[in-house]
């Protein structure tokens, strides 16, 4: 039975590599579009010339800009739970439990974590100019819709529980051992330098608003300048491009391996035909194997019908042609 042109394992590898290559290429193209959008966006700072610039645009709106400014609360600011006098406009309180779980396959303890509590608070805030004389301010809309929150760690504490002998024995029997609880606080502090990438619109009341883009583009809020966001996106773009190329190369290798095997089998199938032609065809070949030439004379019937190897393999000492008993065998020499 001929071997199939491609095995199920090779088909699975080829399909998986093509699927993952397509997925990774899609992610690469998505990141590439965001990078191109940021590179083309106007780079602005909050100052008193900003309202006139936006007012001159179509629809009194700039579809995508990179805007830098200083964070100020629109009303009352949030106060830190752990630092007196520290204020911010976005606050994230996180309580996370760390445990050690016994892995019976690896025969070792592996660490796992579980979020016990997560709370995010925000108040309306503005972007202002570092220049104290400038009066223009930009309201930042929907900060929680940004790709990631521009927070910095202001408090971190890891509390380890006290274990007695009975607790330790119970942990080993159950396969779970509490390691501790991590308590953190992150904030976007008042006065921090912030860069927003989004849509800048001028409302009828004369106020400026930075908001998520209505069309193409992602909404970013980051500490620092726009080049920080661009560097991270370019790194992600390079990663997805490399992953797509790697999967495509794996699929190509599987395909080439399958083609080489098919060509090799095709040549192997042609070899017996060449051998038969070289030995004089079926007329002079052994009547048993049909491949090797006739090499012996069977006496007493005198038939010349098989090769010596097939004669030795006969189950009974009878001529394959006439079924007469074979007394002896004489080699056949053809000049």
UniProtKB/TrEMBL annotation:
The keyword Transmembrane applies. GO terms for molecular function: ubiquitin protein ligase activity; zinc ion binding. Residues 286-323 form the RING-type domain. It is a multi-pass membrane protein. It is found in: Mitochondrion outer membrane. InterPro entries: MDM2_MDM4_MUL1, MUL1-like, Znf_RING, Znf_RING/FYVE/PHD. It comes from the Eukaryota. Its EC number is 2.3.2.27. GO terms for cellular component: mitochondrial outer membrane. The chain crosses the membrane at residues 6-28. PANTHER family: MITOCHONDRIAL UBIQUITIN LIGASE ACTIVATOR OF NFKB 1, RING-TYPE E3 UBIQUITIN TRANSFERASE. This is RING-type E3 ubiquitin transferase. It comes from Callipepla squamata (Scaled quail).
